[in-house]
Amino acid sequence: MELVITDSAADAGVLAGRIMADHVRRGARAIGLATGSSPLGAYRELIRQYQAGDLSFAGVQAFLLDEYIGLPPGHPQSYAQFIRDEFTSHVDFTDENVHSPDGNAADIPAAAADYERSIAETGRISVQILGIGANGHIGFNEPGSSLRSRTRVKTLTPKTREDNARFFEDDLTQVPTHVLTQGLGTISDADHLLMIATGAGKADAVAAAVEGPLSAFCPASILQMHPHVTVIVDPAAAASLKAVDYYRFAVQNKPTWQTF
Ligand code: F6R
Predict the structure, then answer these.
(1) Is 11 assigned a catalytic role?
(2) Are 184 and 145 in contact (CB under 8 A)?
(3) C-alpha dihedral sign at 225, 239, 22, 132
(4) What does R_g of the chain's alpha carbons equal in angstroms?
(5) Exposed, middle or buried by CB within 10 Å (0-12, 13-18, 19+), for 183?
(6) Ligand 1 mean position to 255 CA, how many Å?
(7) ∠ CA 127-133-134 to the nearest 5 degrees?
(8) Burial track 61-90 (b if 16+ CB lie within 10 A, e otherwise)
């Protein structure tokens, strides 16, 4: 695991975007996208590179981590719509190449199985960008999630619903209670996991994920089992880490041949 502490949240986003762009330039067939606020800086960097003519997503498939159950198609906070608005419609992704679990399916377990199948049929996800919840969730794998779980229904914790109410006019009653999410096993199948966390509200969750015990109660601690992980944090999100000096030393002394 590589831990990079950037000077600012903006720098964290640019670095994450550059790493994703490198995967696309190297021929990624599929990339994994997250929603929420954490990846927005990375998406802005990808849009910038696309607009500069330096990057194309033609032929690349994208898979979202998760989707709310029961929001009507086109709802601005459905993750399928959110990713279109914030990222994919600003670059040359076609809508058919951007996949998300179907939170409106009549048969939700079948929709979960279909989603797993479509990822498997596409082949490997080269890079999966991840945010982290204040309670340590990734995707919507809330504390207690099986460390080998696959795409399935989860019930959101009250804390996550409160955190996400800001996207729903601060009205908790509008925040769905259930989601379809890639499991921790599904996420772990990606070649490179790229987590971005900024702000003091994420500091304890980042420390638990990176330096705490492997535990279903900190789902993001599954990153410790993956062979290729980059965690990018700003100073505020790094504030609870113990080995900050070592992480900085490792980045400063990185061999020139070693890429992300
Ligand atoms: C969203 C997702 C979630 C978020 C997490 C952090 O697709 O998978 O795990 O990454 O809830 O949300 P933000 O970035 O809004 O703080």
Answers:
(1) no
(2) yes
(3) positive
(4) 17
(5) buried
(6) 32
(7) 145
(8) bbbbbbbbbebeeebebbbbbbbbebbbeb
* Known catalytic membership, residue 234: no
Nearest Cα neighbor of 79 from 119, 32, 117, 120 is 32
Beta bridge partners of 49: none
Average pLDDT over residues 229-248: 98
- Residue 45, H or E segment: helix 40-51
Angle (nearest 5°) at CA 211 between 216 and 233: 105
* Minimum CA distance residue for ligand 1 atom 3: 139
Phi and psi angles of residue 251, each rounded to the nearest 5 degrees, phi first = -70, -40
Query: Does residue 233 register a pLDDT over 90?
Result: yes
66 catalytic? Reply is yes
Q: Which element (helix H / strand E) includes 63?
A: strand 61-64
Output the ligand 1 site: residues, CB below 6 A. Answer: 34-38, 65-66, 79, 131-133, 137-140
Q: What is the pLDDT of residues 143-193, one digit of tens each?
A: 999 999 999 999 999 999 999 999 999 999 999 999 999 999 999 999 999
Report domain extents, the chain. Answer: 2-252
The set of residues, in sequence order, having a beta carbon less than 8 Å from that of 170 and lying 6+ positions away, is none
Q: Given this model, what pLDDT does residue 17 score?
A: 98
CATH code assigned to 2-252 = 3.40.50.1360
Is the whole-model pTM more than 0.85?
yes
Strand (E) or helix (H) holding 64: strand 61-64
